[in-house]
Amino acid sequence: MNFDGASGWLVGEVNKGLAAMFTMMNYERLSIGIQGIGCAEMSYQSAVAYARERLQSRAPTGPVARDKAADPIIVHPDVRRMLLTMKALTEGGRAFSTYVGQQLDLAKYAEDQEERSQAEALVALLTPVAKAFFTDTGLESCVLGQQVFGGHGYIREWGQEQLVRDVRIAQIYEGT
């Protein structure tokens, strides 16, 4: 890569560009983390719908869909475990993101300076944690969704493989 003759523009005040960049990066990290939650939610919703329709074998407790040759896979304990894990991770991520968002609001709009400072410190601590948590659990959820789909989870027709790729790269970019 060669930048000879390239033009540049000052971002913010002289000698304050790095601070401006880190302010932007914190918001970007949270946005990328939310991408992880979004991918997890999409994977969960698709996996639940698929598990309700896909027939295979019988429930361990006996036939559920007696009029059909097999039961939907949602009645199988391991499929239920995977779906419930996905749901818990997604809902936990949303709750955590709401808390971080509340702290962002307090850091900017709280009337009391002490409360603003405390919220700013908490946001500084939680931002990288939230980004890593949301994208890590997003990947875990998407891989579980892929597993619910079985072999169908690896082909493009169902979209699970794309969600895995989308959330995997989210773990990498914008730092941790």
Characterization of the model:
The chain is mostly helical. The protein has a domain at 77-176. The protein contains four helices and no strands. It has helices spanning 17-53, 77-109, 113-149, 160-172. Helix 2 packs antiparallel against helix 3 (113-149). The longest helix has 37 residues, at 17-53. It is elongated. The model has no long low-confidence stretch (mean pLDDT 94).
Secondary structure elements and pairings:
Elements: H1 17-53, H2 77-109, H3 113-149, H4 160-172
Helix pairs in contact: 1-2, 1-3, 1-4, 2-3, 3-4
In brief:
InterPro entries: AcylCo_DH-like_C (IPR036250), AcylCo_DH/oxidase_C (IPR009075), Diverse_Acyl-CoA_DH (IPR052166). It is built from four helices and no strands.
Structural class category: mainly alpha
Helix percent band: 55-70%
Describe the global form.
elongated
Strand content: under 5%
> What radius of gyration results from the CA coordinates?
22 Å
InterPro entries: AcylCo_DH-like_C (IPR036250), AcylCo_DH/oxidase_C (IPR009075), Diverse_Acyl-CoA_DH (IPR052166)
Organism: Pseudomonas aeruginosa
Domain Acyl-CoA dehydrogenase/oxidase C-terminal: 15-176
Protein name: Acyl-CoA dehydrogenase
